[in-house]
Specification:
The chain is α+β, with helices and mostly antiparallel strands. It has helices at residues 42-50, 68-71, 153-165; strands spanning 4-9, 12-13, 17-18, 21-26, 29-33, 60-62, 81-83, 87-90, 93-96, 103-105, 108-112, 121-127, 130-134, 170-172. It is globular.
Amino acid sequence: MTAELHVLCAGYAHDRVASTVVLVQDEGRAVIVDPGMVSHRSKILEPLGRLGVDPAEVGDVVFSHHHPDHTLNAALFEAARFHDVRAIYEADVWTDREADGFQVSGSVRLMATPGHTAEDITTLVDTSDGLIACTHLWWSEQGPTQDPLAEDQAALERSRAMLLELRPSLIVPGHGAPFRPNPHT
């Protein structure tokens, strides 16, 4: 496994909101997951700079879903191809494809995980430390257990169970720091 994952910004959702923004480096490719709302763009750009990544060199951006708090800063990555549940968008080309099972790079693949929205996807990253899941199936390790904005809580519960069957070593939630899943997650 060659992929390395870096949390650029651990998100939050209280009186203010920020998405958890992730950089995955794999096979010489830079992949950004959920470049959404943050208090200032420097919260994304400064950690990238410290890691030696130029935003113009980011090859892929993955949206877990299309809420603005997960997509707002996509324009920082002008040369990237963008992935959602249905397609790849690159410059002026729209290529339809299902996300489930799509291989972004050798160690990065997508998984359909509906619940929060019908169009949610999880980014699965194989690393030397095990499988890491970047997902909005959890807001944070602290909860809430019931997603207050879920379009379909039952589907969300099924998606959580399906993801946990893969035995991820780490979950990177939509609005919080990464955490290790346990039987009560």
